[in-house]
Fold each of these.
Amino acid sequence: MSISRRKFILRSAIASPMIYNFHQQLDLLKSQLGEEINWDVVRAQFPIINWDKIHFNSGSAGVMPIMVQEYLTSLIAYMNARAPYEAWNDWQKIKKENIYRLSSMINAPEGSIEIVRNTTEALNMIIYGLKVDKGDEVIISSNDYPFAINAWKNRQERDEIEIKKLDITLPLEDEEVIKIYEQNISPKTKVIHITHITHREGHIMPIQKICEIAHARGIQVVVDGAHSFGLMKFDIQELSADYYATSLHKWLNAPHGTGLIFVQPQHIGQLYNHPSSYLKASDSISKFEHIGTRAFHQEIGISAALDFYDSIPYTAKVKRLQELKEYWIGSLQNNSKVNFHTFVEPRYSAAIATFSIEGYSGGQLVKILDRDYDIHIKSVSGPWGSGLRMSVNLFTSISELDTLVRAIKTITA
C-alpha cells in the first residue's frame, strides 16, 4: 500500500472538520521523544497519570493514549451526526487499511484476518466453527483461559467430543512443555488448543514447535494470542498456527472491544460459517464480520492506535518493558516470603509476571494494596496457589514500581 496515512485520511470521507486530527499530536510526540526515548514524554500521552490509583493490570485491558481517545470521541460524534450505516459506508476504506496494517504486523496472508470485538469472540468463532465430530479428541490445558475452556466443554456437551485437559504447572523450560504435549497426543487427537502467552504467569509457550509436531500428525492448532499481539513480534507463517485470536485493546492500546481473528486461508472454507453470514461467504474471512450493528467507530479508531504504536520503535518498547520487569522482580528476589511463578528471561516472559506471598491470598493482597497504597493489581490462582499478576506498561514509572516494592517489603516484614 503506497499511499501515506496522512494522504489517505485527507482523501477519504474521514476528512471532516468533526474528526479530531491526531496527527498534529503525533508529530509533536515524535519531535519530543528524542533518539534515546524519553519515557516521561510517552507516559504523558496516557490519561493514567490522572488516576488516583497506580495501574498494574494492563493484562486485563490496556489504556488508550489520549490522542486515541480523542480521535475515538470525534468518530462517535461523526457517526451520530449521520445515519450510522451511512457513516459505516464512509469508513470502509479505513477499515480495509486497518486490516492491511494489522496483517502486516504478523505477516498474515491477504484475506486471512477479520476485525472482531475481542479474543473470546474470535475463539468462539473458531471453536464452534471447527468440524470435530463425536469421539474426536481436543487437547487443552489448565493454563488456557477459562472462557476458552468453557467453549470447548460446551462443544463436548453438544457434540460428544472428548476433551483431554493437561495439568501443567508453569514456569517450565520449553523442552518440558513440548514433551508434555507430544506425549499426550493420541490417534484420536484432532485439535490442540494452546495459549501463546498464558494469562496467569505470562509464560511464553513454544508454539512453533508444538505446531510442527501437531501438523506432522495431521492435527490442527488453535492459538489464544490475547497477550501476544502488540507485545511481542512474530511471523504468523513461521509460528504455523492454523487459527489465532487476539484482543487489540490490550497491548496495542486500541479502543476497548476490538480484536481480530486469523485463519489460514486454506482452512477458512472448512470452518462452519458464523450463524448470520451469507452462504456465499463460506470461503471468505468476511463471514466472521456478520454480527450486525456494533460500535463501528471502535474498528476505525484502531488506526490511531496503530499510528501511536508505530511512533515508538518496537525494539525500544521491548527493552523498556524488560527493564521495568527486571527492576521490580530484582528488587524483591531476595525476599524469602515472595515466590515467583514466571521466568524473568525475555524468551519466557514479556511484560507480565506473577508472584505470591506466603500467608496471603491474592484477594487479600489486592485489598491491602488498594486500601493502603492506591495500587490496582490483578489476583490470580494457579496450581501453585493464589497470588498476583503484575503487568508493566509503557506508562509505568520507576517510582510506581518503588511504591509496589516498598509495599511488599512492608507486608512481608
Note: The chain is about 40% helix and 15% strand.
Amino acid sequence: MKVLVIGGGAREHALCRSLSLDPQVTSLHCAPGNAGIADVAELHPVDAMDGAAVARLATELEAGLVVVGPEAPLVAGVADAVRDAGIPCFGPSKEAAELEGSKAFAKDVMAAANVPTSRSYVCTTPEQIDDALDAFGAPYVVKDDGLAAGKGVVVTDDLAVARAHALACDRVVIEEFLDGPEVSLFAVTDGVTVLPLQPAQDFKRALDGDEGPNTGGMGAYSPLPWADPKLVGEVLETVLQPTVDELRRRGTPFSGLLYAGLAITSRGVRVIEFNARFGDPETQVVLARLKTPLAAVLLGAAEGTLADLPSLTWRDDAAVTVVVASHNYPDTPRTGDPIGGLDEIAEQDAPEAYVLHAGTRLDDNGTVVTAGGRVLSVTATGKDLAQARERAYEALGRIRLDGGQHRTDIARAAAEA
C-alpha cells in the first residue's frame, strides 16, 4: 500500500516512523515533511492547506491511503478534497473537524450527548466576558474559540490577564476550572465503531513544576501507572462513543482520530477539550507502545471497517518523550540555529531512544537547523517509566542547540511514585 502523510511536525514524523515499520506499507510519502521525515519517507513540496493540491498529489502517487495529520488542514476541508478524489483518507470532514475548530461547537455537541464537561459561557462582548469571569472566579480558564496551535488557552489567578486574553479573541469560551490530573486519550473511529488507544499524560506548561506559559506540549509519557484500570472503558462509554454517535446523528459523522483531553476531578472524569487529530507530543509515546501494525487500523477507519479488525495489541514497555524548543519559545522563536548531536543519538541510543523532528529544515549546506518553536522530541522506551525517562534524558544530553530549552521533570513524579 502507498501511504501519503500530510504535515511536517513531530506527530507526522511519529506516524511516518510507525508506518515505515509496517510490512503492509510498500511506499511512504509525506507533504511537506521535515528534515527528519526525509529519512523514512519521500517528501513533496505541497502546501498542506491546499486541498486540491493534496488530492492531486495523492492521485499522481496512486496512494491507497492519505493521512491528514495537523488540525488546520482538517478544519479547512483537506480530507474532503481527498475523499472527493476517490482516495481513502484518515481524518474527519471539515464539518466534523469543527469539534476542534470551535470550542463552542464542541460544548454544544457534549451537551447534546450528555458528555461530562465543565460549565462554560460563550462570550462575544466585553460585558459577557466580565459577567462570565465574575461568575466562575479564580482560577480563570479562558479559551479562544478557534484554532490557536495549542496556545489559545489561559489559566490564571490574575483577573487582568484573563480579561486581556478574552478581549483579544473574536469569540471566547470561559469555563469553570477543573481540578485533578489531566489525561489524554486517543480513539480511532470510522464514525460508528470507536477503538480507544492507550492513555498518556502531556505537559503543557513551558517550565518545570508546571510553571510558565502554556505551550503546544513539552513532553509526555505512557502508560499511566496511577490511573484507574477502568478509565479507558469508562471514557469510551461516557465520552467517546456518545460523541461519535451524536455527530453521526447530526449528519456529520466523525471518521479519523478523536482526541479527548480529560481531567480526573473529585467529581469524576470531565472533558477539557476535543481534538480532531493525533496530539503532539502524546502521539510519540502512544505509537511507541503500539504493537499492532498501524496502516490497517488507519485504513479501517477510512473505509468504515474497524469492526472487522482484531483487537489492538500493546508492548509492555513504557515510553517517555521530551520536547526540545528553540530560543524564546513560546514567544517568537529564533530560527536558523544548527542542531548537533543527532547522529550520535542514532548511533549510540537507538532503538531504545530516537529523535522525532518538528520545526527543522536543511540549510543550503545540508545542516539540520531550527525552523520553528518546538524543534524536536527525544522519545525513549524502557521496561518502566524510570528506565524510559533515563534513556530519554541521556539521549537528549547529546543534543547541541544554542538557546535550546526543555523541561527536566517530564514523567518524574510518575516514575518515582
Note: Residues 231-249 form the longest helix (19 residues).
Amino acid sequence: MFENLINDLKKGEKFVVMLAPSFVIDFKYPDIIVKLRKMGFSKVVELTFGARLVNRCYHKHISKNGKDIYISTTCPGIVNVIKAKYPNLIKNLIPFDSPMLAMAKIVKKHFPDHKAVFISPCTLKRYESKNSRNIKYVLTFKELKELVDYYEKNNLMKKGKFSGKFNKFYNDYTKIYPLSGGLSKTMHVKDILGENQVIVKEGTKEIIPVLDKCCKIKDKLFLDLLLCEGGCIGGSNVNSKQPIKTRHNKVMKYMKDSKKEKIGESKGKIVSAKGINFRRNY
C-alpha cells in the first residue's frame, strides 16, 4: 500500500508531513513526531496554522457581505453533499480553501524543494487533494499506524536523537478544529454574527434537516457543518475505539497543554502567508 511512499523515502526525497491536530486520539505527542522523523520525513508541521488563516478568510468574507447563508467548506464531505443533493446551495459555499489546501500552499512557499504528505482521519481528503498540485500523498490515521508498524517490524527506523517539536507554522487554539463547532469557536464569530445566526451540526441526521430548511431562510446565517458524528474525531479511519467524549477530551487536553509550551520561532505568523491566494471556487 505504501510502496511508492516508502521507495521515495528510501531514495532520500524530501517530505513535509502536514499532521491534522486530531492525531492525539490515536498517537502520543510528541512521540509520533519523533517516529515520523525516524522514518525519514524531513519536516513535520501541524495543520493548525492553515486553520487559523482559513478563519481569517471566513471572518472577512462573512463580515463584508450582507444577509445570506454561508456554508463552511472545511469538510469535503459537506461540499460533496451540497453538490449532489442541494445544487441550489452551491453558491452559498464559502469560497476558500480548507486548512489542508491552505497549509499545502504555505508549505510549498517556504519549503519549495519538499513534497507534502497530509495525514488525517478522513479518506475524503484524498479526493480534495486533487485540487492541489502541492500534495503528493494523503494517509489516514489507520494507514499511518500500519506504516509505523511496518518500519518498526522491519527495523527501518533511523537511529539517533530526533526532535519531537513541530517545525514552524505552529498554532495552539485551532487544535480544536476537528471537533464539532471547532471552526466557529475559533473564528471569533461573536464579532460579526449574533448567537442565533450560527448553526453547528454534525452527522447526516442533523445536517440534512438544516440544509432542507435553508432555502426558506432569509437572514444572515453561518452553518458550521461536519459530516461525521462527533466531527473529524468520529471518522471511520481512526484506530481508537474509545467513545467520542473521550476522544473529544483528548483534543481539549492537547490544546490546553500546548498553551503552556514555549513554541517561539515555531509559532505561525500571518506574514508567512503573504502573497498566497486562499480563494477557491466551487
Note: The longest strand covers residues 115-120.
Amino acid sequence: MDIHPSRSDMARRRTVPLAGDMTQNPILVVGGTGITGRRVAARLTAAGHPVRVASRSAARPFDWHDPDTWSAALAGVRRLYLVPLDGTRLTGPFLRRAAEAGVERVVLLSGRGVDDPDYLPPGHPAGIVHVTGEEALRASGLTWTVIRPSWFSQNFSEGYLGDWVRSGDLRIPGGEASAAFVDAEDIAAVAVAALTEDGHQGAVYELSGPASLTLAEAMAEISLASGKQVRYTPLTVDEFVTELVADGWNADEAREFGLALTPLARGLDARLSDGVRRALGREPRSFAAFAADAAAAGAWRA
C-alpha cells in the first residue's frame, strides 16, 4: 500500500537540511545544459548551494564517452543530479565511479513507462537507458531518489519539437489521446528538494501536470498564449518517418524517434500522478501557466 505524507509532514521535512557540509562540497549536475538540468542548477545556485555543471566545456571537462573525464568531475562531490545519456548503458559504470569518489546521494531522471514492458518496443534505446539506469542505481549502494516525469511541457518550446511548433504545424504520430504534460520547473523543484532535504530517500516520484490534454488542446493553449495559430496534424509512424527522411534524417533514427512518440497515441501518458504533491506539498503547474510564461519569454516568435 502506498502511504503519502501529510502536508504537515511535508512542512517539517522541508526544514531538515541534508547532513554534511552544505557550503564546501559542490552538487554535480550531469545534464546541466538540458531542459531539467539547467533549471536544477539555477535553483540550487539561487538557494546558495555550490554547483558544478558537467559538460565538455566546463573547467573540469566531462564527456560521457570518455570515462577518463569522470573522476575530475566527481571530485569532492557528495550529491548528484543525473540525467543519463540517451540510448546508452553508461549509467551503471558512472554510478560505480561516483560511489568510489565518495558520492552519497543521487537523484536520477528516469521516465514514465519504466515499469510497463509494453510502453516502448523491446530494445528501444529510450527504454533501455531508463530501465538499466534504475537497475544500476538500486544496485549502487548509494542513497537515491528516482524521478519519472511524463512528457515535458517544454518539449514544445525549447526541446526537439519546438521548431515544429514555431512553424505553425506540429506533425507527429501522437494520435488523439491525451497526455498529462509536466512543467520542467516542477521537475527541477522536486529534484532540488530530493538533493537538499531529508525524507526523499528511496522515493520514486512519478510526475505529471494537473490535467491531461490532447495534442490539439495543447496547441490551442499555445495559440491562445502566443497569439500565433498552431495546429496539430496527426501522422502515422510511416508518414512521420517519410517526412523526416525527406528533411535529411537517417531512416533508422527517424523510426526510433517516431516509435518513441507512440505511447502518446496509445494513451499511456494520460494518467495523472501525485509525485509533485508528495514531494513538494503543492499541486503541479498547469499547461496554461507554462504556455503563458513561455510566450512571455518569446519562445514561439519566428
Note: Confidence is low (pLDDT under 50) at residues 1-23.
